[in-house]
């Protein structure tokens, strides 16, 4: 079995390493300041846990290595302008958008798109950073040096935020998880819910993501974030990696997204994972862990051993049970152990769980 090197040494990389152990796969994490000479990359497979990285001697060498899976795809998917053009070329629905080059565009933008828009950096700007919600009265909040480096999108009135996580193998086989319902606040994912009941958009979403992965000849796990609106399913963004909204797969599916990614890039069998039961994932952001959480047998704590500070993602909780009612009751019992700002996330999760059949 080949070694797997992961560019980046964050929590996603550590989860990939954990997923490799039962398979007998050795996964090494490469920090961005590492000396590439210590790695035997020519006899390995290289993947990544991050979407954007600085231009260093290390990344320049990796970008030229034939061992680096999807090396020619990252420049397309990490640039929002190129990503939107790809989706448009495939006739896949997105929010109306256009490049933002100069201030003189604003009258035309508000006339064509709407009075309420979102400006996004072409590169980077994840977890709510590098994004600005605008109307005609506050265009000055966009930094001057961002013009020519951004796109602008119409703000969408959506009924649900969804993500589809799928994988494509080297032989073109694909596998998908059920659509996941997500709750964001200020651009940061706070909670996810997956249900076992039928979702009328599952086949549509799988077709869309399949088109993208086949067009790019992509290998590995890819995540497609979507809005459900009155116009139907709209693609918001693509992530060429394992994704926070798929963390529930660690405890509610037969194959986690991390193992599925390793299977895909190593040309191992790629069956569709079985989702055993409904699940709720809560991100732990800027709070300390509580050992009392472990008293609940259906709770799985994933703690990253990071220094706790405001706004930093330090872990996540997965709750799993066959009964959505029981999951809702567990959330209710956990509510007093969380800061007050978690109330909205937990109530959203309970409301999502309470829907016997979701037609979106």
TrEMBL record:
Keyword Ligase: yes
Annotated Gene Ontology cellular component terms: cytosol
Keywords: ATP-binding, Ligase, Nucleotide-binding, Purine biosynthesis
GO-annotated molecular function: 5-(carboxyamino)imidazole ribonucleotide synthase activity; ATP binding; metal ion binding
GO biological process: purine nucleotide biosynthetic process
EC number, as in UniProt: 6.3.4.18
Catalytic class of the enzyme: ligase
InterPro entries: ATP-grasp, ATP-grasp_carboxylate-amine, ATP_grasp_subdomain_1, PreATP-grasp_dom_sf, PurK_C, Rudment_hybrid_motif
Pfam family, one: ATP-grasp
Keyword Ligase: yes
PROSITE patterns assigned to the protein according to its UniProt record, in alphabetical order: ATP_GRASP
Domain ATP-grasp: 84-266
PANTHER family in UniProt: PHOSPHORIBOSYLAMINOIMIDAZOLE CARBOXYLASE, PURINE BIOSYNTHESIS PROTEIN 6/7, PUR6/7
NCBIfam families reported for this sequence: PRK06019.1-4 (NF004678)
Protein name listed in UniProt: N5-carboxyaminoimidazole ribonucleotide synthase
Organism: Candidatus Erwinia haradaeae
Annotated gene: purK
